[in-house]
Amino acid sequence: MKQLVALVTGGNAGLGFATAKKLCDENIITYIIGRNAEKTEQARQELGPNARTYILDLAELDKIPQAIAHIAEEAGSIDILVNNAGINMKKDFLEVTDDEFQRIIHTNLTSVFVVSREVTKVMKSQNSGSIINISSMAAQYGIPKVVAYTASKSAIEGMTRSMAVDLAPFGIRVNCVAPGFIKTNMSSKALDSDPERKNKVLGRTPMGKLGEPADIGDTVYYYASDLSKFTTGTVLCVDGGNSIGF
């Protein structure tokens, strides 16, 4: 049986790394796309023999088609795409400049569209594939000081539904995972330095704790595998109930 091939953008750290680990552990050849060569290579070594790397800055849209074509040729197929890479910026609404807003939309939304379009060309020829977009709690309710990020992630959820309808005739499923507050180095640092925010986060999370990165990896794998073969166009919150907590 042919080994499946996955592509995870931003797969060298955080939730992207946890996702890549799950896919590698399930014997899926997993390409991690990252900007930083050293960091990406280190991740590959940690992930083991099923991991591959491709160094690319997704902000450089014109380089994406060539990158996807190269990976498809080298690997023979692309069966799974996880659009995980993204950037954030905390800033008061009135202080956000046009350029800052566009930079976040460019990376978090436009590059996801371009990568998905190019990967779809490969998946269409196979008449199969699963695309998983990564959203955020910012698309579920209002979080202060992240207007550009919120706009990008809300758009990702809408795009997921639109893509699901467009691509279903080609045997391609498109779904979305919306992580809640997950225990990563970055989130721990942010919450530990702001006890009030940490209490607020835990207070509105019915399960009363932060999630583990592996929780996201497991959910992505569900969407990537035949376990969800009749599921497309959905957004699954993996958040301990945070999005519905009061």
TrEMBL record:
<dbReference type="GO" id="GO:0016616">
    <property type="term" value="F:oxidoreductase activity, acting on the CH-OH group of donors, NAD or NADP as acceptor"/>
</dbReference>
<dbReference type="Pfam" id="PF13561">
    <property type="entry name" value="adh_short_C2"/>
</dbReference>
<dbReference type="InterPro" id="IPR036291">
    <property type="entry name" value="NAD(P)-bd_dom_sf"/>
</dbReference>
<protein>
    <submittedName>
        <fullName>3-oxoacyl-ACP reductase</fullName>
    </submittedName>
</protein>
<dbReference type="InterPro" id="IPR020904">
    <property type="entry name" value="Sc_DH/Rdtase_CS"/>
</dbReference>
<comment type="similarity">
    <text>Belongs to the short-chain dehydrogenases/reductases (SDR) family.</text>
</comment>
<dbReference type="InterPro" id="IPR002347">
    <property type="entry name" value="SDR_fam"/>
</dbReference>
<keyword id="KW-0560">Oxidoreductase</keyword>
